[in-house]
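Possible regression after last week's pipeline update?

I re-ran a chain I had predicted before the update to compare outputs. Posting the input and the new output here so someone can diff against the archived version. Not blocking, just want to make sure nothing changed silently.
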Amino acid sequence: MNLKLKQARQKKGYTTTNMAEMLKISKPFYSQLENDRRTLSYKMAIKIADVLKTKPDKLFYDYFKERMK
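New output (post-update):
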């Protein structure tokens, strides 16, 4: 999905399993989000940004902008 998301996750030292657990979603669901195989809601973007201690726009601005075209 988003190279920024993957890099931010790896920078924190989190695996996809860690992220899924913290977000209370399945690992396949999280992996699908990260690999653009599932649509990301803004609500989930906020949850992910909270886990990664950043702002949603820093990670997902380009993602949402592209979908508004």
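Follow-up from reviewer: compared with the archived run. The longest helix spans residues 56-67. Marking as no regression found.
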